[in-house]
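[scheduler] slot 2 assigned
[scheduler] job type: sequence-to-structure, two independent chains
[scheduler] chain ordering preserved from manifest
[runner] begin chain α
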Amino acid sequence: MIAYRELRQLELKVLRALYDSGQQKLDISSIVHVNVDQFHGIEIEEFPAQIAQVALWLTDHQMNAQVSEEFGQYFARLPLKNSAHIVHGNALQLDWQSVLPAEQCSYVMGNPPFIGKTYLSDVQRADVARIFHDTKSAGLLDYVACWYRKAADYMRCASSSPFKGESVSEGATGRGMGSVSNLSHPHPNPPLEREGIQIKTAFVSTNSITQGEQVGVLWPDLLKRSVHIHFAHRTFQWMSEAKGKAAVHCVIIGFGLQEAANKTIFEYADIKGEPYAIPASNINPYLVDAPNAVLENRTRPICDVPEMVNGSKPTDGGNLLLSDEEKRALIAAEPQAEKWIRSFLGAEEFINNIPRWCLWLVGISPTELRAMPHVVQRVEAVKAMRIASKDEQTKKDASTPTLFQKIRQPTEPYLLVPSVSSENRQYVPIGYLQPEVVVSNLVYAIPNATLYHFGILTSAMHNAWMRTVCGRLKSDYRYSAGIVYNNFPWPEPPSPQPSPPGRGRSAAEGEGRIEAAAQAVLDARARFPSATLADLYDPLAMPPELSKAHQALDRAVDAAYGKKSFASEAERVAFLFDRYQQLTSLLPAAPAKKTRKRSI
């Protein structure tokens, strides 16, 4: 309805430019060419499919009234001979060519279902598998990704040079998938005689397909099909008008198989507000004006920095974990258990200073264990829980019920990075811990991290990178080692030799400035011992001392990259993607996998 209304409004502007308003001698029916029969759609529900046709007729009537008022002549298309072509069916299982031949199509648009990969039904999961039958790790994709692949293949059918000679893949379901047939042939729509029809497509989508691990699955598949992004609305919040007002974080991506002369990124300073337009030379899969880099899920960092490891995973049914009250009760019953109890932190406990404890029974002797019946009872419960598990590895780990299933606890001081942090924070809170504090698999640890590493990771530079490439848990940031940390392009490493006189400061001097600024951040935090990290990094409650310390750190980190400042976060990220490409181009090629020869 909205697309039709806007096209009629554009047409009305054209008619005003061509003809004087109020020309009653005009035959309006001969100059109005946009009609409802140029609209084609696929709708999975039968009743909405019928509503769509009626709604377009009503919109047509409203627009005809505007034209009549403009030119002083009554205009109505009665009887209703033309209607929109709305097909009732599953858009992922229909051949779009059967709805509208690609050579007759001008635009494809839609608002596909927002269903995450973990919430797919069996039918929907089969749709994804069918459409991405030739794509590795397609099970990581959200449902909306299917429309992008279908659209790319459909657009290719109208192109004079199909991708590798393949046909359109069969295979989505969805509300609101629509297309507009070529507007130069309104009654009816005959095939065009020229080659190389350039269809343009735009979808409203969940922002998950431009973040985290999904980018590495979906976008290489689209880029090899010559998909170019023409415009993009970066993440904004779409409030539903339904009861409950569910907020969805969306992007809008406009794309085609041809390059666009003018590309635009619509940025949102406030995701609930209005966007502002930024011209772009290229829009990459992360919706940034930068090269088309797609980050790999790496096991090691691309720079020479300490490795990040995941925390330890209990898989204990909660039996090795203790609240404050449970800890006190256990020590009261068995005082000797105190030496085996350690502080236990996940992301929420670390950020909000919530006390939590665990039984860390590494190295306990059978004699010591049997002397504590309450602890033995908990260990027996761990064993029973693991035996009852459907996971084969968990069943095997029932043989070691005194231990966490995965033990990755650092043996030296380490830097903790939460895996999930609020979208409202400018900086993800990170901090140093001693090895006596056990961290869960909901956080990451960097053993042997220096103040320099702390400074870079808590800077605006790294946080801008994180916000762009990380995944999301609802709207919160979901940090990862494989995507965010291991792909982060650090500054040039400090040189052991100072710079010659007159050639500026050495990288080592830059490292020293970052370390001093990082220590100032820690000192500013320490001035508020009763405040949690959630308090300190609340956008409204952040103390001025801490804010100033972070600003000084940001300047020191920017200088380490050879930049005085950045005009915007988008400029920071574009710079980092350029540096990422420089660094990864120097990495050795991955060794080819050896294939075994089979004897016959």
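[runner] end chain α
[runner] begin chain β
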Amino acid sequence: MNVRSLFLACLLLACDGPAPDDAGVLDGGRDAAAPDAGPPVLYAACEELAPPDDPPMAPVPSTLLGTITPANAPLSEPGRDNPASERGERGYRERGLDRYVRAPGWERVVRTELGGAAPSGGARRSLSWFVHYADFQLVDDESPTRLALTDTPDIPGGLRAQEAYLPRAVSAMNRTLAELAAARPFDFGIVTGDCADSAQYNETRWVIDLMNGAAGLHTDSGDDDDPLPGPDNDPKDPFDAVAFPGPWLYVPGNHDVLVVGISLPDSRLTDAAIGTDPIGGTRDWRRPFGAVSTRAVVADPDRRLVGRDEIVQMLLDDTGAPGPAGHGYSPEDDLTHGAHYAYDAVDGLLRILNLDTNDETGGSNGLVRRGAVDSFLIPELERARADGVLVMLASHHSTRSIDVFRGQLGSTPVEDAVPPDELERIVAGYENVIAWLVGHSHQNRVRAVAGPDADHPGYWEIMTSAMSDYPGQARVVELVDNGDGTLSILGTLVDYDEESCMERRYRRLLVLEHVTGWGDPSNELPQNLNVELVRTIPPGAASAVADATGTDRIESETTLRGE
């Protein structure tokens, strides 16, 4: 609950908003030019915006061997100018604040807070190998519901310097992961929410197409912008995306179902989304560098707002490769109490329970109602226990980001809301729950949530940082039977390999926001980065672990170390 949240709620729901800086739609989608002058150049070529020495960063398999870090320490005070503006970016680039270098790797930290000892090097088997993504926030950066004018160092996120290039970065990460999967295919990938940025149909469509590797992916809305004439030379040009290398699962986040992740899609916002009046400021790619403006935009019906039922139907309708159809959902799922699902990620061994934690009263924090616990969570936990399988929960919000109050700034409790400490007690009371995968806070964080006794040791909460913010990583996860009565969950962070100037530009702009203090701070405590999380094998799942088809090769200690 912060100042920005208050302003956003006012801006979207109650207030008149700032006066536009000028009125009217600009000349058919381009700044004024003589009829025979050709299309105006409103952007610089990627190479012109790069340092003179801008070779691709030499790839490494994972952050165990090398990391990517800013060449400059963060400023002691946030910079005066927004790095998402042309003036801000040019000024900071002249100081070299967008530079980054290869740094030493991060060693793996073994954590045993939930019982068991560090593996002693005996016979180990890899049981599952998958990818955890979080928080793409793939944005329609020209949407009239944007709140770009609210972006400040103290309350960031209304605008991002790198946002237009995010589809290229996710595609690059998919390509990098495909190279890792050449050694062994991933069982699945999972995106723990905020896939889209503002509950729009076009944003959700772009996410699905991006993860499926669509040819000619065009993440543009309204007018068909081409700020730099010619193909494949600016972020508004179509490009061929690289698919995620395996089946991928979707988890809804607050930005997927709420306007800018906060406001319920009421009739006013529904009309605003497909309208022309960006009272909170949006990018205008008819102006140089996609400058922020409150001038009228070109309307687009594909900006219409979508709710969870339509999002689930879009996923169910996606029956092509890489799958699975529904991306976790099935036609039989009951969405009455939330967009939850149970999905057998590794048959007979590992089940994913997606708990929809989004607050239907509005607001960015999570909220879980009693109906969701009674009709989905507890019955599915009981079923998994009876089936003798291991469980990983997945949700957008950590329990630390779940409350019991109505709306973004509410102090009125929701009568049937389940307190977060009760949720933790319920989940930790099931001995076969070994992990809970989350996002939302845009940080890498791993937390041990203890159970009530030695027979119910608890679970590991694993948060992976956002692709939309620095450092822009994915986490590769491997489940290992240590051969001594314990399991290990090995989590390893991966940076994407660079192959194009635009992929490098995304990273430079990530670094620029971080170094200038205009982005959320990163979390680089070693216990949250590359980890090995040990826990005893639940007796009820011992047969499933013993019978699982495994491999003696531990990819986290071979493939991810370049072997």
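[runner] end chain β
[qc] chain β: The longest strand covers residues 125-133.
[scheduler] slot 2 released
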